[in-house]
Amino acid sequence: MRFEYRGWTADVDVEATRRAYAQGSLGASAECACSECANFIAARDAGYVYPVEVEKLLSDMGADPSRESEVYVEGPAGRGSLVYGGWFNIAGQLLSGDGVPTEIETGFDLFPLSEGAAVDDAFGEDPVFRVEFRALVPWMDSLKRKK
């Protein structure tokens, strides 16, 4: 299926992507026990990470927005927040827009890359590209203290 999104185009095998997410690992952040990943999961589950349109895009392409292929911390951003990065692998081929960042909303950028990385075995031999994100994410303990 052809996807055109904010200046980039990809041919996506939606069913192969769905199968890979259904059969693959739980995702990088869920398999890590560090406090940064635990914070990311808490923030994501509370709706502080992905804009609604990004969750829809990922789901439409067959990815599970709660099972990132990779998540990492770039560093502190001040005011009780961290900058996180990560990506979702997608079965298919990126046709245009390789590496072009797009600000979806303040504090959230998305950019496609033509090659997958840390690809789960569940993708098999399918060609894979990735959709990377960079997000400003609150430290969840700081939110609890403000209430």
Cα Rg: 15 Å
Distance between the termini: 45 Å
Query: Taking all residues together, what is the mean pLDDT?
Result: 92
* Structural classification: alpha+beta
Strand proportion, as a percent range, falls in 35-45%
Order of helices and strands: EEHHHEEEEEH
- What's the shape? globular
- Count of domains: 1
Helical proportion, percent range = 25-40%
Largest sheet: 7 strands, antiparallel
Q: Tally the helices: what do you get?
A: 4
Q: State the oligomer.
A: single chain
| Total count of strands | 7
Low-confidence segments: none
3D structure, described in words:
With 147 residues, the protein is α+β, with helices and mostly antiparallel strands. It has one domain. Helix content is 25%, strand content 37%. The protein contains four helices and seven strands; from the N terminus they run E-E-H-H-H-E-E-E-E-E-H. Strands 1, 2, 3, 4, 5, 6 and 7 form a seven-stranded antiparallel sheet that branches. The N and C termini lie far apart (45 Å). 31% of the residues are buried.
Give a short summary of the structure.
With 147 residues, the protein is of the alpha+beta class. The protein is built from four helices and seven strands; from the N terminus they run E-E-H-H-H-E-E-E-E-E-H.
